[in-house]
Amino acid sequence: MAGVLVSDHEGQGGHAAGAVELLVREKSYLFYYGEPLKRYFRIRTCSDIGAVWRVHFRVLSDGSAGLLSVTCSGQFDASVHGAWLAVVAYLKAAESSRLSQDLLSSRWRASPGFGEYLKKWRGLGMSFYNSDGRCLDALGGAGSSRVQLRAGADCNLGLPDFSADLLFDVMRRPVTRQWEIDNIRFE
Amino acid sequence: MPGPDSFWNNVDRLLALVSAWGAESTLEAATSGTTVETYNNISWTLLAAIGIQETGFQDKNEKDGGGVGGGVFQITIPSPTITAAGANNLATAASWLLNFLDNNETTIIGGTTGVSESDLLWMVAASVNTGAQGQINRWLSGESPDYHTSPNSAGGFGNNYGQNVLNIMDCFR
User: Fold this and answer.
1) Predicted local distance difference test score (pLDDT) of residue A96
2) How large is the ipTM?
3) Domains of chain A
4) Residue B32 has pLDDT above 60, yes or no
5) Going by DSSP bridges, is the β-strand pair A65-72/A38-41 parallel, antiparallel, or unpaired?
6) Rounded CA gap, A31 and A65, in Å?
7) Which residues of A16-29 are buried (b: 16+ CB within 10 A; e: fewer)?
8) What is the 8-class DSSP label of residue B96?
9) Which of B62, B104, B157 is opposite residue A66, by nearest beta carbon?
10) CATH class for the domain made up of B5-170
């Protein structure tokens, strides 16, 4: 089975337990895995959200699926990966206290909601942000010009005082074909 | 280093224990008279139990495939938040793990509703091997915190990582 990687979460160490979600023709499939997972990756970015993974798995006794190995030849879903890269760049800039305006759409920056967002953003802690971007989940959108991504628990946003999930609406500009963030909501 | 001195004094006691691991008298000496201190609601005994669960409290690096675990607590290295040297330095690694557990507790509380205190401790313990999001996902789908938490070499899973840690914690009470 092959699909687009939309979520990958695991714990610590060489024997961590993880779970990935692959999108196959609009349908989502969940696979559990344990480290060390056999990863046959042609390039380093094969671990990015949006990479196309071919998986070898077995159905476990309770009906869940356990990964045995994954292969990635370096193919990506351009939509999910492009949107993910934009959000990773935005969070990376925010980590160093910069608000990267060029990654935000002019429509959203001109909207009333942007001011509200900025107020909340200024109170958001970034010091514990897990900056490799694998903490982000893509909520569908493969092959489309709009993708939604969530920065959830493993991104550690807002800590130490509270935890915050952020929902990013990301769109591809028709002319430049660049991905930009068109809305960010606190959940 | 975050946390009150008494918290870290307890960790120091644990180091004394570890230096003679296996000697029951040492275990008693190290723990007798110890007040169980917590910092940000994380008990030093949870750190101790994780170190024993992961490595038997040995400082070693394990590299056997996609994941690399470093030091007593088998922290994933390299990581954006800790170096390999840090994972192998017990004081640095313990401080990192304390923050990790505290963060996981905060995010698990934020991502769930109706979790009892005992289940929260179980989830925080299990989150070492699954991450906080893994625990939230299990909770939201009605699974046990320990669902598929202990991978085995045959590609299957045991369901006991978090409970094992909690059982070890009981040794220090």
Assistant:
1) 77
2) 0.92
3) 2-72 (2.40.50.140), 78-186 (3.10.450)
4) no
5) parallel
6) 5
7) bbbbbbbbeeeeee
8) H
9) B157
10) mainly alpha
